[in-house]
Amino acid sequence: MSYQGRNVNDGEPPPAIIAAAERDYRSMCASVADAMLGARRVAAERGSEVEAFAEVYFELSRINPRVAGAMGAAAIVQLAMRP
């Protein structure tokens, strides 16, 4: 996988990450769906996409980094899988 033109993955994810993905992916997708509803409410209240992003980013920064990262990964995969 590349990120901003850099190769950030030199191989397959370690077994512990694969096991966590198999265990957590569906619940992270549900968390993303819940977060989307909250983000829509925030965006409607704020009226600015940047202000909504700032608030969502702030809230995610306050939770467990592993959970925030898993939610971000789930959201990216969900977006990537859309036609």
From TrEMBL:
It comes from the Bacteria. This is Uncharacterized protein. It comes from Rugosimonospora acidiphila.
